[in-house]
Design goal:
By secondary structure, the chain is of the alpha/beta class. Helices cover about 35% and strands about 15% of the residues. It is built from ten helices and eleven strands. It has helices at about 1-25, 40-55, 70-80, 160-170, 180-190, 205-210, 225-235, 265-280, 285, 290-300; strands at about 30-35, 60-65, 85, 120, 125-130, 140-145, 150-160, 195-200, 215-220, 225, 245. The strands form two sheets. It has an eight-stranded mixed β-sheet, with helices on both faces. A three-stranded mixed β-sheet has the order 5-11-10. β1, α2 and β2 (about 60-65) form a beta-alpha-beta unit. α2 crosses α8. The chain is globular. The structure holds 2-acetamido-2-deoxy-beta-D-glucopyranose. 2-acetamido-2-deoxy-beta-D-glucopyranose binds near residues 109 and 112. InterPro entries: Glyco_trans_8, GNT1/Glycosyltrans_8, Nucleotide-diphossugar_trans. It comes from Zingiber officinale. It is an enzyme of class 2 (transferase). This is Hexosyltransferase.
Length: about 300
């Protein structure tokens, strides 16, 4: 009887420590940010958050959520350590655009997060597999160049600025967007981006100070490695050990659909993180649909 009580006591202490860690939303100067329009990408964001914490980062993680996100989803995100901020959607000014692009201009709001010195934006369909805290050394604006000439807005480093945000808002209806979305807009806004120099995180402080501050810098592919890159040759076109961020860009094939593991080998990386995350968190025990999902992922690993 006594041992039962002390065992209970032990777990109460553990839970108290865990919840103190979760609730202590200590504010940092820098933050990781993602955007959630509805619950269908919830699992993506949760695994992304887990993957960031797995790299040892203690930076704030902010989830910007719009009205389509349920209270339940918000609760889970908070429990995972995300700071949840509500935002209203920025209407897409383009009349010719894919239907699902209705609110994508909302992403521009990260330029308005002036409470932070710097933010690293990550799409909900990315995961971090190696520390990317060095990205906060980017000066004003960093992103990847894809297909040799297009800026990809899936991973971006932004120095929030009211003047840049206001300027962008004033141009939203006039600047051309080749995608009909935020990415096309940003390509026109940062039209000189293909000529940007490569971001060098290991530059010494002295070298950093003597150089003029670049308006934009280009990130190595390692910070935004497309599974498309993998599919081409059935192996990563970059050194697998150096990979930092994997981006699951293949349209409807998202890693949270457990069956995609048969199609895409790099999905395994995502699923292992998900599996570990949900065995640790209590939702595994209390949420039926998650339990089914986790079980099916587990079965996949057994077969
Ligand atoms: C930009 O940020 C300011 C200050 O936080 C806020 O008052 C304003 O509503 C924001 N603008 C938009 C369009 O979200």
């Amino acid at each position: 009887m006594k041992s039962l009580v002390s065992r209970l006591g032990f777990w109460v202490v553990v839970l108290a420590i865990l919840s103190a860690v979760n609730c202590g939303q200590s504010k940092t100067d820098d933050a990781y940010v993602t955007l959630l329009y509805g619950d269908e990408f919830l699992l993506g964001v949760r695994v992304l958050g887990k993957s960031i914490r797995d790299t040892g980062s203690t930076k704030d993680m902010v989830a910007l959520v719009s009205d389509g996100v349920s209270d339940y989803a918000e609760k889970l995100l908070r429990a995972d350590g995300w700071i949840v901020q509500h935002i209203s959607l920025l209407a897409n000014p383009n009349s010719v655009r894919p239907k699902r692009f209705w609110g994508v201009y909302t992403k521009l709001k990260i330029f308005n997060m002036t409470n932070y010195r710097k933010v690293v934006y990550l799409d909900a369909d990315t995961i971090v597999i190696k520390s990317i805290d060095d990205l906060f050394k980017c000066r004003k604006f960093c992103a990847n160049l894809k297909h040799s000439e297009r800026l990809n807005s899936g991973v971006m480093v932004v120095e929030p600025s009211e003047s840049i945000f206001t300027d962008m808002m004033s141009k939203v209806t006039t600047l051309y967007s080749y995608t009909g979305g935020d990415q096309g807009f940003l390509n026109t806004y940062y039209s000189d981006f293909p000529n940007a120099h490569l971001f060098e995180p290991d530059l010494s402080n002295d070298a950093m100070k003597t150089r003029p501050v670049p308006e934009m810098e280009r990130l190595s592919t390692l910070y935004n490695a497309d599974v498309g890159l993998y599919m081409l040759a059935n192996k990563w076109m970059v050194d697998e050990k150096e990979l930092k961020v994997i981006h699951y860009t293949l349209g409807p094939l998202k890693p949270w659909d457990w069956w995609t593991a048969w199609l895409l080998k790099p999905v395994d990386v995502w699923q292992v993180i998900a599996l570990i995350a949900f065995f640790i968190f209590c939702e595994f025990l209390c949420n039926f649909s998650l339990r089914i999902r986790v079980l099916s992922i587990g079965l996949h690993f057994l077969t």
